[in-house]
Design brief:
Shape: globular
Largest sheet: 11 strands, mixed
Order of helices and strands: HEEEEEEHEEEEE
Distance between the termini: 39 Å
Length: 209
């Protein structure tokens, strides 16, 4: 399944062009009203993702994202994964001279912006007590693996004078590897973690140690 249809949902908060393909399989159990109840033996694969807000290098990309042994119980509000593997992820953080970031959620409110005041709750709105009483979802991930990751920071406000041979120098981390085991939410104990990366500098599109 191509991912072009996601653009319409992303446009209100991130006008990015999205490319890639998605495949999903599993066994879905329905209740007597045909509403989803449980998912078992699920597997999700998202390949060749590229999300870009302009014609430059993609802001976010990866070779493959795979979720294996996925199961969900909508009645018990639980979700479990045997393995989540992310291969070849690449993240490019860019801030222009006006202070605008290329990814949603990173921009601060502009000066002089009027804060939004929440509307008063109506009689039909759920109260805080009712909201707190809503069942919490539980998440368990047996293994999370990230391989061949890369992050580049392109900050024109801060790095404008960091030059090498007349070219701007961009800090980067390459060959990022991350391994986590026995993740849970809510957290129930320590999580074994292994992380490695190679700091580098990117100059005119070329990586230099």
């Amino acid at each position: 399944l191509p991912l072009g249809w996601l653009q319409g949902y992303l446009r209100p908060f991130w006008p990015a062009r999205v490319d890639g393909s998605l495949s999903v399989q599993g066994q879905l159990q329905l209740d007597p009203q045909f509403a989803p109840r449980r998912l078992s033996e699920g597997r999700l694969q998202l390949n060749g993702l590229q999300a870009r807000s302009d014609d430059k290098t993609p802001d976010l990309a990866w070779t493959s994202l795979t979720l294996e042994q996925l199961s969900a119980d909508l009645e018990q509000h639980s979700l479990s994964l045997g393995k989540l593997a992310l291969d070849g992820p690449s993240l490019r953080l860019r801030r222009n001279a006006q202070g605008l970031w290329n990814l949603p959620g990173l921009a601060s409110a502009p000066a002089g912006a009027v804060p939004v005041v929440p509307a008063a709750a109506s009689a039909s709105s759920p109260t805080q007590a009712e909201t707190r009483a809503a069942p919490r979802w539980r998440l368990a991930v047996e293994q999370l693996l990230l391989d061949k990751g890369r992050v580049v920071l392109d900050d024109q406000q801060v790095q404008a004078r960091v030059l090498r041979d007349g070219q701007r120098v961009l800090p980067a981390a390459d060959n990022i590897r991350l391994s986590l085991s026995r993740l849970a939410w809510p957290a129930s104990g320590s999580v074994p973690l292994q992380l490695s990366l190679e700091p580098r500098a990117e100059v005119s599109g070329a990586l230099r140690k």
